[in-house]
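Hey team,

Sharing the Helix-turn-helix domain-containing protein run so nobody has to redo it. Sequence (124 residues) first:
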Amino acid sequence: MARTLEKKTLTDWRKTRGLSVEEFAERIEVSKGAAGDYLRGRKEPGVLRAIRMAEALGVKVEQIAWDADMAPRPTAEQLPAMPEGEGVTPERLAVAREWLAAGATKVEVARAMNVSRATLYAHL
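Structure output:
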């Protein structure tokens, strides 16, 4: 009887293997930012890059759940609006966390809140 191969997303395999994003990036020979884009599904790898990713994770390409990684990000209309105001308030921070969970970058969130990235990072 043929055994079914375990299937996980890139992010799940990376975590299972105990790799940081930096280590994963090194193994697939891309920048940390590019690796993050692949892990979040913002960038789709070509065939050779997909093979390199699988090798870096010690799995077969068929074991990577590509569809789950490539799920579309919610549009701005699907996310809650950033509450009006200045600075970081509990209400604005709650919305910021929703945006981040949906795949927005910290840079995008900081801009929407009209605060510096350092200010945002201090509150997350």
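The chain has a mean pLDDT of 88.

Ping me if you want the raw files.
A.
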